User: What shape does this take?
Amino acid sequence: MIWNEKAECMSRDERMWLQSERLKKVLERVYFNCEPYRKRMQEAGVMPGDINTIEDIVKLPFTSKKDLRDYYPLGLLSSPMSEIVRVHASSGTTGKPIVVGYTRNDLSIWKEVGARCLSAYGLGKNDVVQVSYGYGLFTGGLGAHGAVETIGGTVVPMSSGNTEKQILMMHDLGVKALCCTPSYALHLAECIERSGIPRSEFQLKVGIFGAEPWTEEMRREIEQRLGIKAFDIYGLTEIMGPGVGYECNLQHGTHLNEDHFYPEIINPETGEHVKPGEKGELVFTTLTKEGMPLIRFRTRDLTYLNYDKCECGRTLVRMAKIMGRTDDMLIIRGVNVFPSQIESVILETAEFEPHFFITVDRVNNTDTFEIKVEVKEQYYTDDINGMIKLQKLLAHKIQSVVGLQPTIRLVEPRSLQRSEGKEKRVLDKRVFNN
Ligand code: ADP
Ligand code: ZN
Assistant: This one.
């Protein structure tokens, strides 16, 4: 199902024309209404009139997370406060959170792009959708909520937490689609298994998962445990919230709503565009936002883009699954390690649960790299030799993927903490030691 065929399937030429027109308009807006942007452009020697097509975007300076922190809370607004009808804030893993403001029109565009996502997942007005992203400052809950209402579906505004009640509502209300983080979906799956309620009593068919990186292996695990088809939804507070991108039924990449959010991929070190199809840092320009438009915002998310037309009929560019953020990457003894690589290996190995925790430290000037991982019930034994064999198996597999041997600590099933929102899987103690 396609929600907005014109926008989602228009020819690339037509879309580029639209993007160019919108870019010119948004530049006028920020230049004349947001002093920090005006200054920044003046410093770079570029005026709105110097930009004629979307390809001229490279002349514009980047915006970083630091800029948003420096102008905390709402110094980057391009609309007067009287036009701002809502604020949200990012979870802010470090330091000050980032606050953003939306006009009424921004909210309606958010709902429009959210509706595109849900339609692509095959959902419509006869479907009950449970939103188990947190409600509040986090964009997940209210963002997904608005999207469900827009397609005319029935929204169950659960928010996060209270897992028993989540399961009760899902069961009793015949929920067809669940929206939450992939890690919480996994936790729900585990709790449903333990509740003893047969899966056949649930109507759940569709998973809408995002807000954190998740691998294909994780997708298969959740799909199998919940008996559903799991779709990716991508978004970030600075740009809008969930709905910036979504997977169609073919699941060959996440379509980006590029008529509203213009993507580029840059080399994070040089800031230059990478070659088409090459991996790098994702950068977005909001083309239609009024409250807090951002120009060339560096997301720190690592991915690559595919501009081929998708067989689903959409011409919207597709983004590969986010492999992590530049700031998620651990450098251990000089080797780059992404938590997503560890996730893939653990999920591919039958003996382990998909729950792990990485600790990195520095002892005697050497980095230590430890992974705690849950062993599946049927493999967890008192037989020390058996356990050592498992440890070696995993250490070896991880070494072959990341090129570094971790210390593996096997733990009992269900002993690691579960998360209700974004999963925290890494503790880097070196950050505090320096
Ligand atoms: P914070 O940056 O504090 O986590 P957000 O809630 O705005 O704040 O999170 C946005 C980030 O979450 C994205 O930049 C990306 O790193 C991650 N994210 C969101 N959706 C997905 C997804 N579908 N796949 C991978 N990562 C995602
Ligand atoms: Zn498609």
